Amino acid sequence: MSGTAQTGGGVTVRRLLLGSQLRRLREAKGVSREDAGYEIRASESKIGRMELGRVSFKERDVADLLTLYGVGDAHRRDELLGMVRSANAVPWWHEYADVVPSWFQTYLGFEEAAGAVSSYEVQHVPGLLQTEEYARAVIRLGSHSAPAEEIERRVEVRMRRQRLLADDAGPRLLTVIDEAALRRPRGGPEVMRGQLARLLELAETPRIELQVMPLGFDGLSAESGAFSVLSFPEPDLGDVVYLEQFTTALYLDRPREVAEYVATLERLRVDSLSPERSWELLEGLLQEA
Predict the structure, then answer these.
(1) Domain 100-288's class?
(2) Over 90: is that where the pLDDT of 240 sits?
(3) In degrees, to the nearest 5, what angle opens at C-alpha 93 toward C-alphas 87 and 94?
């Protein structure tokens, strides 16, 4: 890995914070996104992506925007322009750009920057909790025509993500897994035994809270697809909802939409087995496997 590569979460946080500050400055000055885009020879949507921290920043563009927004204080300008340089550092997954689509690179940055990742999974065990063998089976299932080298590089990315679990500064994980996902024999019985044993081990980790939605429950789980809610420790950053689709993903950050998903996840947690009963179910599944 290149010596210039940096922790992706730090880069993402700096982009998010810089974008948030640019948005507040623009709104305080009463400048529309369209007018801001015109100032830097860009589209209104480009300004929106900058303010959401989803693109890199050009120092000249930020300098022009600061002038438009009336930021004349030299110290303040230097502080914000310094954030541009640090926000453009290269994250670790840049090395895997051939197998990690741009829409998922955004998620990787959010995941590393998050203080908590809460999720509901229907089809598979969450990526952060997968064993290498289980991950390989799942990735093969979704990429029948991909060459073996590509499969292995994608497995490497999934395993690299899991370093967060050993990092004291890593996020808390709160996940609800549909029992059906635990009963699907991905990779065969031996792989599933290893995966269930791994979940039992992780369920005893203080920062991980694992619950299982039992089979036969006919409530909300029947209507809700998989999703994740990422929360950040920085007070300037609001929660983001991640919805993965077949060839792309949606990122929702409007407070009303986010609140609906947060409430949905809370109901799912209430309707699921408790962490203690979920552990007992996992242990029973392992004995059956």
Answers:
(1) alpha beta
(2) yes
(3) 70
